[in-house]
Design goal:
Number of domains: 3
Number of strands: 12
Oligomer: single chain
Radius of gyration: 21 Å
Number of helices: 13
CATH superfamily of the largest domain: Transferase(Phosphotransferase) domain 1
Shape: globular
């Protein structure tokens, strides 16, 4: 276990609420003592920093989760989750990072990502898997280009409380949200640009095939910083055919929905396009875009594209983005971002 007194605010806040094993030891008798040490460091009465309240709230949340896990006999070693399938099969997964999301939990391993969806969301889970398996490509060339960036489901399991989908990935693939946190909350504009370019390319595919994803965000996108590739592995539980009725959306994209779409409740490519713009703003450091105005390192054509509403057409947006990039940076040139999986997930 790390020395509790030496933990920084960012280190504590990076621990998912469902993962108290990364903060507390496995000894139930030590929990109260460890909590007392952390409270002495971070209680607002003892620590006057601006982050003290948030950190103390996270410590309390993790402490409560630790006590519940110990009481239920669910405590596991740090970095390990156990999947006990109702079929009788069991396996453990060595994970580097865990994140809660609105339907359950995501666990990131070196070569896999597991999505554990609570059983009350069975319909969404089954719908998401169906959307993935039904993906079709116009021809073999397009399939060869794009299939590698879509989910590759390696296994589906059912436990007493969750449905589990395990997806393959390569070691260099990192959750975008974690990459941005690792570099201090914002990517350089040229690196934010390749993320947006890749997402708009996927949006064009969705538009042509009549599909909407509806949950594009830094919490559902995986990237390889070394090779400038984007993988849309999360959020498929909300995917729907264009024009079909939408029953539920994650909060992160619901707020971006055009008013007419909110009224019709029909799937529309505009939500994906607005979400991609929001991703661009977020990974630059400000999801609203207001804090990006006036930044000397951020070219105005790029900023204008990310702040203005979508055209409503993925192909139209892709073309407009291409012009914005050329006006912003000139001819395309690969710029390496030398950050590895092990840099982010130490």
């Amino acid at each position: 276990m790390p020395l509790l007194e030496a933990l920084t605010a960012s280190q504590i806040l990076a621990i998912a609420p469902a993962e108290p094993e990364r903060l507390f030891s496995g000894d139930p008798a030590s929990l109260r003592r460890e909590f007392a040490v952390l409270a002495k460091c971070w209680h607002p009465d003892c620590n006057g920093s601006s982050e003290a309240v948030k950190v103390m709230e996270r410590v309390v949340t993790l402490y409560d989760a630790a006590r519940r896990k110990h009481a239920a006999g669910e405590w596991s070693a740090p970095g390990v989750i156990r999947i006990d399938a109702t079929s009788g099969n069991s396996f453990t997964l060595q994970v580097k990072r865990r994140h809660e999301f609105e339907l359950g939990e995501m666990a990131i391993a070196i070569d896999r990502v597991a999505f554990l969806v609570e059983k009350e969301h069975t319909t969404l889970f089954e719908t998401g898997l169906r959307r993935i398996t039904e993906l079709r490509y116009p021809d073999a060339r397009v399939g060869g280009d794009l299939a590698q960036f879509m989910p590759d489901v390696q296994g589906v399991y059912e436990t007493a409380t969750h449905h589990v989908a395990v997806m393959a990935k390569t070691e260099d693939v990192i959750l975008l949200q974690d990459l941005v946190a690792h570099v201090g909350g914002q990517l350089p504009p040229k690196h934010a640009a390749w993320v947006v370019s890749s997402l708009l390319n996927l949006a064009c595919f969705f538009e042509v095939t009549g599909l909407t994803h509806n949950a594009i965000s830094p919490a559902t996108i995986f990237v390889t910083a070394m090779h400038h590739a984007v993988f849309l592995l999360g959020g498929w539980w909300y995917a729907a055919p264009t024009g079909s009725r939408i029953e539920l959306l994650p909060e992160m994209t619901y707020a971006l929905m055009p008013r007419s779409m909110a009224i019709s409740k029909r799937a529309d490519t505009r939500l994906d396009l607005e979400s991609i713009r929001a991703v661009g703003r977020t990974i630059l450091g400000d999801s609203t875009g207001l804090g990006l105005v006036g930044r000397e390192d951020l070219p105005k054509p790029m900023l204008n594209f990310l702040r203005l509403p979508s055209s409503g057409s993925a192909i139209g947006d892709y073309r407009a983005w291409g012009k914005a990039l050329k006006d912003s940076f000139g001819p395309r040139r690969f710029m390496e971002l030398p950050i590895s999986f092990h840099d982010v997930y130490r």
